[in-house]
Amino acid sequence: MIAKQSIRSSRTNRRVIAERINGALETGAIVEICHAIGAATRQHNIADLARRAGIERTSLYRAFAGREKHPNFSTVLNVLNAMGFELQVTTRESAQVTGVRAEPQFNRSSQSHSGGPHNSHCAGRQLSRGRC
Question: N or C, which end of the chain is more exposed by having fewer CB within 10 Å?
Fold first, then answer.
């Protein structure tokens, strides 16, 4: 009985945390976002969370304190992932966007750097100093 209550409580807490972070993301205010993620990190063992995110414990505290220096994007993604969350992009119905191309241009330059048709012997290898 206690285990079921604990699991239910954990799911509720995670949902509340996700709603708070999403609410902060909707504002677009970096300080609000940092505070929301920072509050979420305090629901975890900071040392374990920092280890799973691949950063120092003190860096985790500083990253989401909401001060002048803000975390980089990879830190945000790593910490969210370590807490079991993911960042997802959705469209805003109220947004008026101009200048959007009819067809997205994803990875247009990847072919020339990854050994496209003109360098088939490089396919699947990492580029280093212009060579594969």
Answer: N
